[in-house]
Specification:
The protein is α/β, with parallel strands linked by helices. It has helices at residues 7-14, 56-62, 64-74, 78-89, 99-102, 107-111, 134-143, 155-163, 182-185, 210-217, 236-243, 261-270, 285-292, 325-337, 339-353, 359-375, and strands at residues 2-3, 24-27, 42-44, 93-97, 117-122, 149-152, 169-173, 197-201, 228-232, 253-256, 271-276, 296-300, 317-319. The strands form 3 sheets. The protein has a 6-stranded parallel beta sheet, with helices on both faces.
Length: 377
């Protein structure tokens, strides 16, 4: 397995804990940190720097030119390192997670081992956003024809991959970190009729468009006065925006910065409405979490990914233009005024979508996909 240091990766890999596969992980950016939750995996860390040198962080902060020169001399190449490891352990399968960091850098290495099956997992913006960059697209087109098998977090990315040369076997659409353990999260679910919170994902920047949502609620002060409005994971751009608006003085408005994954799930279990808005994503994990925790989702739909799980007006609302605050405002007005329809939508999600996201169910399906590869070796 080739992946960056990521909780999504760790949660995915945990699914294989009792699978009897011998698993190795190369940390592509080499955090040089052992991960306890995947202690059944042979973790290849500490590979990047040839020698340790004193004053590393001081040089990085104060002498960037010197730092870059040292990197060129002192750091090992990922592709060369992976080739060395492949020769040592002779794996049946190499599984790369994310195109730019863990797949395209390995193309020349993997061409040397045509007998090894190459699996690729597409996450989030991995293909949909990156295809818009000419240099990234050239690498994507060069790499995809070499891939034997593919997972993705949305079906959209399978079609993107096919367009740019993937001819292998699609193993299916799965959440990036696998399913959810309902016995942990269900105690935090409040009945929808008792909820009075609107929860907003607070990302604003290259891809996130939280501020478009905040602009949309400013004219709705009277409509939303009975709700607690909470922005979680608020970035600096969001904080700066709020300080310049009347939201900064609303008694029912609150921003939360860095909170744990469990705290996010607890908030979802209190939220009547959840709003996530961005210009590019796969199938957002926070959307899935809103669904399993019984919040009504209003979600942007870049490239049609979110509509794979949200049927407009049946089990949530879709934002067609994430930059259009007027559109978002109208979706929020509908959600707060159509109370019975909102309750019906949430119940639909809990009965029809949530069971498909249960941890053990997803895990069993994932293991079957690895077994399919194994049977073809």
């Amino acid at each position: 397995m080739i992946s960056m240091f990521s909780n999504h990766f760790f949660r995915w890999t945990e699914q294989l804990k009792k699978s009897n596969y011998e698993i190795y992980w190369v940390d592509v950016f080499d955090s040089n940190t052992k991960v306890k939750k995947i202690d059944f995996v042979n973790q290849i860390i500490g590979w990047r720097n040839k020698v340790k040198y004193p004053g590393k962080y001081f040089i990085k902060q104060n002498l960037p030119g010197v730092h870059n020169l040292i990197i060129k001399i002192n750091q090992r190449d990922l592709s060369t390192t992976v080739e060395k490891i492949i020769n040592e352990i002779n794996p049946d399968v190499v599984h790369s997670f994310i195109m730019q960091s863990a797949t395209t850098p390995l193309i020349e290495t993997m061409r040397k081992f045509p007998e090894i099956k190459w699996v690729y997992s597409a996450w989030g913006n991995d293909l949909y956003y990156r295809q818009q960059n000419k240099q990234d697209l050239e690498k994507i087109k060069k790499t995809l024809p070499e891939i034997d098998y593919m997972f993705a977090d949305c079906l959209r990315d399978f079609y993107v991959a096919k367009e740019f040369g993937f001819k292998g076997t699609y193993l299916g659409t799965f959440p990036t970190g696998g399913g959810y353990e309902f016995d942990i999260y269900d105690p935090y679910i409040t009945p929808i009729e008792e909820r009075t919170t609107i929860l907003i994902k607070g990302y604003q920047g290259k891809l996130g468009r939280c501020n478009s949502v905040l602009r949309s609620i400013i004219p709705l002060r009277n409509d939303l006065k009975k709700y607690n409005i909470i922005v979680f994971g608020a970035t600096k751009e969001v904080s700066d925006f709020v300080k310049k608006t009347e939201l900064n003085h609303w008694s029912n408005f609150k921003m939360l910065l860095n909170i744990s994954h469990l705290e996010v799930l607890k908030l979802m279990g209190l939220a009547k409405i959840y709003i996530g808005n961005n210009i590019s994503d796969g199938l957002p994990n926070t959307l899935l979490e809103a669904i399993i925790m019984g919040a009504f989702p209003i979600q942007s739909n870049p490239g049609g990914a979110s509509e794979e799980i949200i049927n407009e007006g049946v089990n949530g609302f879709l934002i067609s233009n994430p930059e259009d605050s007027e559109e978002i405002k109208m979706q929020i007005i509908k959600a707060v005024n159509l109370q019975q329809e909102l309750i019906s939508a949430v119940n639909y999600n809990l009965e029809n979508i949530k069971p498909k996201l249960e941890r053990e169910r997803v895990k069993n399906d994932v293991i079957k996909k690895y077994q399919l590869i194994e049977n073809r070796l």
